[in-house]
Amino acid sequence: MSSSIPNQAAAAAPSTADASISTSPSTSSSPESSSDRIQKFLENDPKRTGFDPATSWWMNYFRILSGQVTPEGVHHYREWRYRQNEARDCKRCEDARDYLLRYSPIVRFMAEKTEQLGGHRLDGSNIVCARCPARVSEDPASGELRVVRQGGGFHPGFGILLCANEMRDRKHLEDNLAHEMVHAYDHLRWKVDWDDLRHAACSEIRASMLSGECRWTRESITRGNWTLTQQFQRCVRMRAVQSLTARPKCKDDVHATKVVNEVWDSCFSDTRPFDDIYK
Description:
Blueprint: H1 5-12, E1 21-24, H2 34-42, H3 46-49, H4 57-65, H5 71-84, H6 86-103, H7 105-116, E2 127-130, E3 135-138, E4 145-148, E5 152-155, E6 159-163, H8 170-190, H9 197-210, H10 216-222, H11 231-245, H12 253-268
Parallel strand pairs: 2-6
Antiparallel strand pairs: 1-4, 3-4, 5-6
Subcellular location: Mitochondrion inner membrane
GO molecular function: peptidase activity
Keywords: Hydrolase, Membrane, Metal-binding, Metalloprotease, Mitochondrion, Mitochondrion inner membrane, Protease
């Protein structure tokens, strides 16, 4: 697979699994346009942000810990470190991917089921590890800038993208890979129209539900989200809304929530190709 494919897949991936959103302070009183504000955000100014790429990483890290770097500077520091560690992160991702394709029960099961539907065999040729830069956009509701980080993506024409710089460990990668494999399965079985928000919402619900990313231990220990009742359902709903909000045709999180609610009952009850929910 050529080196251009990861970039194409990242640009067109219909889902943003494991996306986290942060915002920078709104400057609605400024006459700057949205594009000007985004461009200013993307161009790091050490005097404004406190992050200086000309100094060592540990000095910048100390400045972050001591509160001398703005949230904008922290974003630039993170992207800077990802660029420095790109080769290492991709190697770790590829090693973990190859291990999971051999030994992970859920990954092997989903690979088998997608192949049975007439799809190409999912392997190292179409499951690509790459560095995924964060996307910056303006929230139309609040006017604030938001940074969206992507864990992976699926594109019918290119395969599965795994964002090597966002993977914490092999288990985290397994959840993301299983998530994207559910999208691949849905596309082959139901010919999903990824531009239709209802279709996309249904697949996002199923992917978060079946991949294992909303298991109790992941939510309570890793993310710190713990409730006595409906924790699993809350996680699936929240992650489906987040993924849908990141799509160009979705206006905001209110719109995403409305679409997810419309398809929730039928999609949450559909566990195919599993007999039951994998947790």
